[in-house]
TrEMBL record:
It comes from the Eukaryota. This is NAD(P)H-hydrate epimerase. PANTHER family: NAD(P)H-HYDRATE EPIMERASE. NCBIfam families: yjeF_nterm (TIGR00197). It comes from Penicillium polonicum.
Length: 260
């Protein structure tokens, strides 16, 4: 049984591109169904994890370009977790380097999958630095990509991530979170206390479809991951907006009260 939630989005005038676009109802997909969707894409859809991660990371990099163009500062700090969300961040860092930014990567708990090792090698071949001292890098970066935890996060936070998220939360830097703000419960939003309780990133990119926690989010919100087919969207009851031209992302705005 598909568990999904309708969320109303009001588009600002600057990004209205539909004939009847004032309010759009998008379904939020549960963490369980998001995992099932990825499994369907790979088992019956002919996709590989590499391909999905590549398109997800490209979407993240395009979202960065839209909220923080190079003219606003080229130093981008990408903070990666040990799973697929971190892999998306590694891909995004590579694309950001090609886009003309100066990315660096903080990867305190590296994933053991051979795919992550290859993504790391690709960045090293581009001379993208992997930093070991987080606090100085956080103080000097122009923008931060939070690619620590995605839809599979179930808590609780384990070292070293409570301190990392607390530092991001209190830093004076704009943040784009990938799929969900790290530390947030996918269903219920930010924790009531502790690291992440006051974490509200400047921008959020939902991959494939919004997750239920997006109802608690206040900020610029993007949809990314332009690869779903009709049979997949029908199966999971998704009704995603149409991407424009060659864009891999689409911004979904907030209403006058700042609510999604």
């Amino acid at each position: 049984m598909i568990r999904s939630t309708f969320i109303n989005f009001r588009l600002p005038l600057s990004i209205r591109r539909y004939s009847k676009p004032t309010i759009m109802s998008l379904k939020a997909i549960s963490a369980k169904d998001a995992a099932s969707l990825d499994k369907d894409l790979m088992e019956t859809g002919g996709w590989s994890l590499d391909q999905l991660m590549e398109l997800a990371g490209l979407s993240v990099a395009q979202a960065v370009w839209k909220v923080h163009p190079p003219s606003a500062g080229k130093n981008i700090l990408v903070v990666c977790g040990p799973g697929n969300n971190g892999g998306d961040g590694l891909v995004a860092a590579r694309h950001l380097a090609h886009f003309g930014y100066t990315p660096s990567v903080y990867y305190p708990k590296q994933g053991k999958n051979e795919l992550y090792q290859r993504l790391t090698t690709q960045l090293q071949n581009l001379s993208v630095p992997f930093i070991g001292d987080f606090q100085p890098a956080l103080k000097t970066t122009d923008f931060l990509v939070d690619a620590i935890f995605g839809f599979s996060f179930g808590g609780p936070l384990r070292d070293p991530f409570p301190e990392i998220i607390s530092q991001i939360e209190s830093a004076n830097v704009q943040v784009l979170s990938v799929d969900a703000p790290s530390s947030w419960d996918i269903q219920n939003g930010p924790p009531k206390e502790g690291p992440g309780a006051n974490f509200m990133p400047h921008a959020l990119i939902s991959l494939s479809a919004p997750k239920p926690c997006v109802a608690f989010y206040r900020g610029r919100h993007f949809i990314g991951g332009r690869f779903l087919t009709k049979n997949i969207t029908d199966k999971y009851g998704l009704d995603l907006p149409k991407y424009q031209g060659v864009e891999q992302v689409l911004e979904i705005g907030v209403d006058a009260e700042g609510r999604l």
